[in-house]
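We emphasize that the prediction below concerns an isolated chain of 353 residues; any contacts that depend on oligomerization or on bound cofactors are therefore not represented. The input was used exactly as deposited, without trimming of termini.
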Amino acid sequence: MLQGPPAMGEPWQPQPQQQRLPGPGNASEPSAWPPETAAAGPGTAATPGGPGGPGGAAGTVSPWDIALCATGTAVAGENALVLAVLFYTPSLRAPMFLLIGSLALADLLAGLGLVVNFAVRYLLRPPSEAAELGAAGLLLAAFSASVCSLLAITVDRYLSLYNALTYHSERTLGFTCAMVLLMWVLCLGVGLLPILGWNCLRDQSSCSILRPVTKDNAAVLAVTFLLLFALMLQLYLQICKIAFRHAQQIAVQHQFIATAQATSTRKGLSTLSFILGTFALCWIPFAIYSLVADSTYPVVYTYSLALPATCNSLINPIIYAFRNPDIQKSLWLACCGCIPSTFSSRPRTSSDV
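Result of the prediction step, given as a token string:
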């Protein structure tokens, strides 16, 4: 209701105006910072939230999240192809292929986890804490199983060289199944930690760069990963020593194939270097950053390091599955119903590692 001028003879008094307090809470002046990044500084304005955290303002989709979702889709499709080949090829039932299948399943779930995380952040309205914790748990379990499967493949390669004479009798399919099942139970337990209360939804100051994982939990996961990588590095060094020793023994016994054996050994060692180097480049920077950073760091750093780590699940099928001659043969039969005449079926030796 409008108020008119004062009556005749009454002293005029100015009407008090409503005081407007500056700041993010002013309804007439919306803040430039999303609630979850207002205290983080200017570096987080362009990309609100972080992997596993809440989405930005309504209608704003981070290009980094789109890239992660697209990578997850490609990872899921590629590893689904590997699982289909292993499932529909009865001859691929050796312990080695079981470990490759475990790696493919873990990477498939990791890809689906990235897609689910994108849907929870941007498509689920209103946001659900249970859905956020479930998506975070799926990613934790999947990537934990992926790293553990890589370690299991490394151990299997080491044992196949170290106990070459008794490997096939000792490394039975049942024993490998039991070990893979135990590994998956442990990784699923890691994935359940956020749901069981190990999260920072009630205390935002304790969040790590991977919300809703706390800083302490992220540090434990990073240290555990670095220890597993150190173990893989040690095993690969032992594999190189054994491969060199086998190559020298074969060269002494068969002088006429010494050149071919040396070429095979060099090829195997270059393969090991590629495997270990790719894994280190993808995961080590992200693990170290998770160990030293917290939620106040600009999220662009988190995204730029998390994306290469997820791309490791895109590279794993190429390294461990599609390079295998038996899987290549199954793919040729499935795609065109024939095997090329140039296809090499030479059995692998210990120097091929």
